[in-house]
Amino acid sequence: MDGALTQNDRSHVVDADKAHVWHHLVQHKPFETTDPNIIVEGKGMRVWNQTGKEHLDAVSGGVWTVNVGYGRERIAKAVYNQLIKLNYFAGAAGSVPGALFAEKLISKMPGQSRVYYCNSGSEANEKAFKMVRQIAHKRYGGKKHKILFRDRDYHGTTIGCLSAGGQDERNAQYGPFAPGFVRVPHCLEYRRHEQDGAPQDNYGEWAADQIEKVILAEGPDTVGALCLEPVTAGGGVIAAPDGYWPRVQEICRKYDILLHIDEVVCGVGRTGTHWFGYQHYGVQPDMVTMAKGVASGYAAIACLTTTEAVFDMFKDDADDPMNYFRDISTFGGCTAGPAAALENMAIIEDEGLLENTLVMGEYMTGKLHALAEKHAVIGDVRGKGLFLGAELVTDRETREPVEEARVKAVVADCMKQGVIIGATNRSVPGKNNTLCYSPALIATKDDIDQIVEATDAALGRVFG
Ligand SMILES: Cc1ncc(COP(=O)(O)O)c(C=O)c1O
């Protein structure tokens, strides 16, 4: 690390942080006696904190974001060059990187054709919800306005997104929520024993059929859209089993329901082989939202893409002053986002990172399965590409989740060893028991070995 802080700088920064910064998702009481972690510098997959301690980051910036790794001068230069030429203009006008990134993005998403820019995953999902509602008003007298979301999925932090939130601990104490959002069951086969009537065989199809049951109970003419994560992230790293997605697509078509896929975590390479998670399953969404990995955190950018058919619904009567998408995103007009996103995508292509993610994802899955042979506390290993989870249980027969405090102890032990891993956190009540891994798409076998060895040592110390 060459940007090391001097002793004086360091204590000033720590004091300023402790006095004034309100960190996300953190209880601050402990900071009365300990210091927060302040990340000072990053390179590749490694970051250094205020004490100069090196960490291998197995969660891409904590929340699955820095897909191409830290310290990418190519992106920094592209952003710099763009900012000195034009930093901003509101989205009613176009920009050079906005047009070029839209073209490039759509070339990776056959079936999609339009890109709406904004600046966070939550905001992109809100836009999609607003489109569904506006379509309901324009075409169905407001009736087909309900939005289905899935148990254990998360779509963002705003009240609208929490209304579509399938993680009760995220939602607790923030209600009341917006009406017209309806929950459908999860598709986590490992926990099918907790779902009434779930079969041993063809669980995927059965799980999708539960969505149809909800639609029929609500009335198909009231349901406008179904919003799903391609691989549930914070709800436990859940990839739906075979048979699920074709049935989901069929159900959406049958009842004229828009399929909205939330690729905020999976989008832009995270699951390997394909650019987007849904592309593994051959589904054709009507709307796709994305954020984190779009520019790997080098600039804030989120996108909502739609098919041309959805886009057409907002321009079919140009004489009606209300008949277009009357939405505003001030920072959707920041040019740094698409400038960074263009370079981010070019890096993934130039360095073959979709392939690396496939290969390293398989390698890491194998390593985690081997770890499960050693530690009975690992009940399930799952995920896709470099987006993996290990669910911890007290007993493999009953699948009773381990106490959350012990999951946290594993994460803390890894941190002490200089390896940052994650765990499901304030998500599903009693089920915050999945270790999460999402290393950058540049991960090597050595990096993965180090991550798995740290987990091995931590599990040994915490569970014996
Ligand atoms: C699947 C998913 N959707 C949406 C969001 C919200 O994104 P943001 O935090 O950028 O608003 C997240 C954030 O973790 C997410 O995991």
From TrEMBL:
**Lineage top rank: taxon:** Bacteria
The cofactors required by this protein are: pyridoxal 5'-phosphate
Mind listing the UniProt keywords for this protein, alphabetically?
Answer: Aminotransferase, Pyridoxal phosphate, Pyruvate, Transferase
Read off the PROSITE patterns from this record. Answer: AA_TRANSFER_CLASS_3
Q: Name one GO molecular function term.
A: transaminase activity
Its transmembrane ranges are none
Q: Which CDD domains match?
A: OAT_like (cd00610)
Q: Which family is it part of? A: Belongs to the class-III pyridoxal-phosphate-dependent aminotransferase family.
Protein name in the entry: Taurine-pyruvate aminotransferase
